[in-house]
Amino acid sequence: MEKQEQGGEKVLNQKGRENNKREGLTKTVVVLVAVMIVFAASGVVGAQEKAAGSAEVISLNVTQMNLQDVLRLIAEKANLNIIVSKEVSGVVSVRLKNVNLWDALGAILETNDFSYREEKGIIRVVKLQEILKEQRPMLTRVIPLKHATAEDMKKASQHLLSDSGTMEVDVRSNTLVITDASENIENVRLLVAKLDTGIPVFNLMGILFTADRPLAMINSQILGVGETIGDFTVSEIGEDSVTVRRGDETVILRLTEEGRAGER
């Protein structure tokens, strides 16, 4: 009986050594692919427990791993519902030890300019810039106009607003009412200051020198010296500029290389 017990003990020891070898081989493979993920918590919990202050901890060692693969691995192990769009891409190299799951997820995404938003137990991966825009305070400012109409100025400046910004026109007071982040409102204000001068917008499209006289094309009109556009008169046509005057006001229009033509 004792022999059998000793023999039995020997067999168990052999199996133990074989198991140890297998385990060692597995660990070696894990190190070679440089991916190790361990969840140390009393139980794996879902995204719905985040708000309750989950104590879930993650250790992660990743080298040059596709971002979407990392997210799928975390989603599977932590029982999370993660939505990843096609635009989410990148490569992750990170070593984390005993880090809160949500802190780790945020750090992994931010290294590739992404973040996440939780909506009813679903983790949606979005561009980091979207989150930053949402976090910026929205302000409302009123910009009065002196010469241009508010409707025309809205058409000229509305493109400077963010997706969540708004611009309303108050016709009675000829003002713009803008709600957006402060930097976007400031961009609109600067454009208004540049355009709301009472001087028409002139587009010098070309200058032509002929044997008789020079001609300029302004706002699709061909004009010579002494001719008028609106209440401005062309007073001088140079090689690359045209001067127009209205009383004491003088406006010099500059020509780009593309607008030059004609003979000398």
TrEMBL record:
Keywords: Cell outer membrane, Membrane, Transmembrane, Transmembrane helix, Transport
Segments traversing the membrane: 24-45
Identification of the protein by name: Secretin/TonB short N-terminal domain-containing protein
Transmembrane helix as UniProt keyword: yes
Pfam family for this entry, one: STN
GO cellular component term of the entry, any: outer membrane
Span of domain Secretin/TonB short N-terminal: 80-128
Keyword Transmembrane helix assigned: yes
